[in-house]
Amino acid sequence: MNKAEKSRLYRDVDFLTGVRPYRNYQNLGSLEKVSKYISDEFISCGYVSEEQKWVAEGNEYKNIIASWQKKSKRRLIVGAHYDVAGDQSGADDNASAVAGLLETARLVSESSPELDYGIDFVAYCLEEAPFFTTKEMGSYIHAKSLFDSQADIVGMICYEMIGYFSDEPGSQSFPVPELAAIYPDAGNYIVVVGIEQCREFSDSVHSLMNERSGINVEKIVFPDGSGLAGRSDQRNYWELGYKAVMISDTSFLRNPNYHLVTDTIETLDFNKMKEVVDCCFNAILKL
Predict the structure, then answer these.
(1) Which domain holds residue 166?
(2) CB of 284 within 8 A of CB of 14?
(3) 192-236 pLDDT, tens digit each
(4) Burial zone of 236 (CB within 10 Å; 0-12 exposed, 13-18 middle, 19+ buried)
(5) Nearest partner of 162 among 9, 7, 17, judged by Cα
(6) Residue 1 falls within a domain, yes or no?
(7) Coil, strand or helix: which one is 286?
(8) What is the CATH number of the domain that holds 205?
(9) Is the pTM of this model over 0.90?
(10) For 158-197, what is each residue's pLDDT tens digit?
(11) Pairing with 151, which of 116, 162, 172, 186 sits 20 to 30 Å away (CA)?
């Protein structure tokens, strides 16, 4: 089975974090530069790149979509957001995840799997504030388009911050003592985050990731999509009744650089990022 390449992951993150002005919702030129990069990368892998556009606060934004086995009625969605919060480069949040999305798309193209479902790779805009939790999020726009067309959706996998790891004891924090008693206290693992309404899907993704894992893969299933569970694009698929999970390094519960100028490429662990993509790729091919 094909494996992710660290050099390609680094190249993607290096480009995204180097864009100036920063790729937030106010800097339309930067968002256009990033969306073109993503589109060009999809095209270089042999995909047809599509744009899904909408208007928010008087400006036009876009999702970039590439599809494997486009004619298949059943679809699996794999997504990540490419905008950042404020004036910072956003290496972990969320360049790491966009790099993971692009590398997953490359691996699928290279391996040419024959599946009983198609895969849509979606790069979202407007995940961050001030649009977070609103119907102007790119992921809501996409999820609603699926709902309106009555699409047959296998599920959705959201890459959200997959690049920050630490082997230091105590480097992983928890919001409640009950979680601290269950999970390792060193932040050197990746987490599959789900909710009760799609526990079976969460279990499947977690199990399949562990089949081919060079990294510890943990799982947490929350009662619903509120609070910590819903802190990225998967929330909008849950809202519309679709199965979905978030693949995450736990964000601010581990990464002290969250939404700060210190969220730079030098803080990422590309060895572990590669392992995250490899085990997700295994799951994506077997759902």
Answers:
(1) 6-284
(2) no
(3) 999 999 999 999 999 999 998 999 999 999 999 999 999 999 999
(4) buried
(5) 9
(6) no
(7) coil
(8) 3.40.630.10
(9) yes
(10) 999 999 999 999 999 999 898 899 999 999 999 999 999 9
(11) 162
